[in-house]
Specification:
The chain is an alpha/beta fold and 233 residues long. Strands 2-1-3-6-5-4 form a 6-stranded mixed β-sheet. It is elongated, with a radius of gyration of 28 Å. 28% of the residues are buried.
Length: 233
């Protein structure tokens, strides 16, 4: 092993001396040109080895992780994501400081729980992950899609005490779904709020037909969902 390391060291020394002779008589500009031409891959590799770990560490230490609000607007072809008109208007309406926490909006998800195979894609898996992690606050879909989604138990039951304020304001808009879990209920429960006449349709044009909003069953920011409903209605 010692001889092999010595051999490698000797070859590196000879190579370095050879390269030093090649560029020794060149002007500074020619030296730079030679180095970039023959060693650009090495340069990129070294920079990547330094920059990427630094970025990961910085992001882990300083990036904003908490949310004021997280909304998913599924099955729309119109931009309603971060830094869209909808995003800016809601941030202003809520007076959110986005340097402290994030207002996250996702309008790039496509799944339809009401059709066979409609949830067999990465978009739905991302929805499930966000929901079960407690990150997601609201999701919007067409009526049939949200009714089917509500059957899974991932949307808040709006008949519970936690939803009292929502019932007082929006009970006439409630959309119901029959749970898949018969032990939970054998009767339809309210899981959505019809917002077909909201700004999502009339101003921002995310949807052309019916639109129903559901609140995540695991959201701890129901007040933010209420504020969003107030804003769009």
């Amino acid at each position: 092993m010692g001889q092999r390391e010595s051999s490698i060291s000797e070859r590196l020394r000879k190579w370095f001396e050879s390269e030093k002779l090649k560029i020794g008589g060149l002007t500074p500009g020619k030296k730079a040109q030679y180095i970039l031409e023959y060693y650009w891959l090495w340069i990129i590799g070294i920079l990547s080895a330094v920059i990427i770990p630094v970025y990961i560490l910085w992001h882990a230490a300083f990036a904003i992780k908490d949310y004021w609000f997280y909304g998913m607007f599924a099955n729309t072809r119109v931009n309603g994501g971060n830094e869209s008109d909808l995003w800016y208007d809601f941030v202003e309406y809520g007076g959110f400081n986005t340097k402290e926490k994030k207002v996250e909006m996702n309008s790039s998800s496509f799944f339809d729980p009401s059709v066979s195979g409609g949830t067999n894609n990465s978009y739905f898996q991302a929805y499930v992950a966000l929901t079960e992690a407690g990150d997601l606050d609201v999701v919007t879909l067409g009526r049939e899609g949200l009714e089917a989604l509500g059957s899974s138990g991932r949307l808040m039951d709006l008949s519970t005490p936690e939803a009292e304020a929502l019932r007082e304001k929006y009970e006439d808009r409630f959309v119901y779904s029959l749970p898949n879990d018969e032990e939970y209920s054998t009767e339809p429960v309210p899981v959505g709020i019809d917002v077909s006449d909201s700004l999502l349709v009339t101003k921002y044009h995310l949807y052309e037909g019916d639109c129903v909003l559901g609140i995540s069953a695991y959201s701890e920011r129901v007040e933010a969902a209420e504020l969003f409903l107030e804003f769009i209605l």
